[in-house]
Specification:
disordered N terminus; five-stranded mixed beta sheet; single chain; 426 residues
Length: 426
């Protein structure tokens, strides 16, 4: 009975139906009043209130009750025509929660799964606007049934994804995740799909709403996203540490130049690339002159400072042009792709003069150290068949430069090729 009263909506009745309801309610009221009059005349009923007040009150109550009952009966009969009993039976056995709304978004039917999901009896929500349930929307978002229908309850433009169904009826489908204040005190996340029926069908304007409890699935998805984020962070951290480790393995900590291991790894690659491109390729070998006497006279700390500043000068000069490697001890190697021996000679002479201008000292009372370098230059013009041969040619030029007095640049040529390296040159 409570569900019938909740289902009453006077505005749901057509004009002719409303007139019929009033007529039937009035006739019922008059019939009941006639029966009460007979009972009173026969002495079976005793009325102790003023007659006029009694009859007016009695007529009003019967008329109001009759109007509600007849209106509810007409409305529920319409619902019964739209949703036959066998369809309701079928929907009650579907595991998913379904709600059917009329064109004003009033709940006219909800299957058993919906009541179980909400843990609420149907007497609470039947006949109510669906948006009056405990949905938690505070950001101005539209409900999916509003978005699907563009009804008065929504605001702004309506976006619809239309799909043709049978008999020319068009259904509009929208889905949305909505938080619901569950009676158990928890916030549940429901996935709500709304399909509004339009067209020339008697079902036009009705809306079928499916509701799925996505709380566990969304919680799992959030956890997985968190794990993936942690994995990405861990992967990035591993990559960063690997890059740091690789840098430590391939970089000379004192001078900041690449080390001999990096040279051994890179030289074959650059050589093969050069062979493919058939472009010039030069190698420069540097050696700090009389470096042993620097260590013996000024100490190893000052010797390290000389190495550091010379390495820094080389890195700054060849940045973006060539690659600088600490070959070992006080020797450095520079690879210059796409440069022939004339260009390499010019660059080597510039860097030799630049290093010659350095003044290195640890304290004002000490004499400044003015380092010089001997440089050997070789390119592919003298038939180097592989990368080690090219480095060996540049290294031989370096020792010839020392034999000739140090602090100079020697380019590989026929004279150097025929020269013999003596022990004293080393």
């Amino acid at each position: 009975m409570h569900a019938v009263l909740r289902s009453f909506q006077w505005r749901r009745l057509r004009h002719s139906q409303a007139v019929a309801v009033v007529f039937l309610s009035s006739a019922t009221a008059l019939a009941v009043m006639a029966i009460l009059t007979l009972l009173q005349s026969w002495g079976w009923l005793q009325i102790n209130i003023p007659t006029a007040t009694f009859w007016v009150t009695c007529y009003a109550l019967i008329l109001g009750s009759g109007t509600i009952l007849y209106s509810s009966a007409l409305y529920l009969s319409r619902v019964q025509k739209l949703i036959p009993g066998d369809l309701q039976y079928l929907l009650d056995h579907v595991p998913d929660a379904f709600v059917i709304l009329d064109e004003h978004d009033l709940i006219i039917y909800a299957n058993d799964a919906f009541g179980l999901m909400l843990q609420t009896p149907d007497t609470v929500y039947l006949g109510r606007p669906i948006e009056t349930l405990d949905w938690q929307i505070s950001d101005g978002s539209k409900f999916p049934w509003h978005r699907a229908s563009g009804s008065a309850g929504s605001s702004g433009p309506v976006t619809r994804d239309a799909s043709k169904t049978a008999r020319g009826v068009t259904a509009h489908l929208q889905d949305q995740l909505i938080t619901y204040a569950h009676p158990d005190g928890q916030q549940r996340l429901f996935a709500v799909h709304a399909k509004r029926i339009s067209g020339n069908s008697r079902l036009s304007g009705m809306c079928v709403v499916s509701v799925r409890d996505a709380t566990i699935a969304e919680r799992y998805r959030a956890e997985m996203e968190g794990l993936l984020a942690q994995t990405r962070v861990s992967s990035e951290e591993v990559q960063r540490r690997n890059e740091k480790l690789n840098r430590l393995v391939r970089e000379d900590s004192l001078t900041g130049c690449q080390n001999r291991r990096a040279l051994d790894d890179t030289l074959p690659l650059l050589w093969n690339q050069n062979q493919t491109e058939e472009s010039p390729f030069s190698c420069l070998m540097f050696d700090i002159d009389r470096f042993k006497s620097v260590n013996d006279t000024h100490g190893h700390a000052q010797g390290d400072e000389v190495l550091r500043q010379v390495g820094e000068k080389l890195r700054d000069t060849f940045a973006g042009v060539g690659q600088v490697y600490r070959y070992g001890g006080e020797e450095f190697c520079v690879l210059l792709p796409r440069h022939n021996h004339q260009e390499a000679h010019w660059i080597a002479e510039r860097i030799r003069q630049s290093i010659e201008e350095l003044e290195i000292t640890s304290s004002p009372d000490q004499d400044a150290i003015r380092p010089t370098v001997s440089i050997g230059v070789a390119d592919l013009s003298h038939g180097a068949e592989d990368a080690p041969t090219l480095v060996a040619q540049a290294d031989k030029c370096l020792y010839i430069a020392k034999r000739r007095g140090r602090n100079q640049v020697v380019v590989y040529d026929q004279e150097v090729r025929e020269a013999t390296i003596r022990r004293s040159d080393r």
